[in-house]
Amino acid sequence: MIQFKRLDHILVSIPPGTTQQARTFYTQVLGLTEIPGGHPHGAIWFEIADIQLHLREEEGGNFSSRHPAFEVTDLTAARHELEQKGVEIAYSSEIDGRQRFFIRDPFGNRIEFLEYQ
């Protein structure tokens, strides 16, 4: 059984060319604190309560990168559990301090599993 700890972050898609507009809205209108760094695929990250909100430019389409990310207690065990149930595991860019992988549910929704190192 996969041991979930908490929701870690949510990635929300924004239209191409709108990163600066999103940065202004989320910092100046909503008052969120931006997390500095060179994040994957040019995303901008914000602190929001005890989770993170990630925003990334993306063209519209049915196979989106939008996703929730769940922190688990043992990423290797979660991967084995999912593989045994025939779920395809996908990997993406690396992020310092955490290991992660992605799956798609039967409807094409992307879900990230991660463990902090």
Automatic annotation (TrEMBL):
Signal peptide: none annotated. Pfam families: Glyoxalase. Transmembrane segments: none annotated. Residues 6-116 form the VOC domain. This is Phage portal protein.
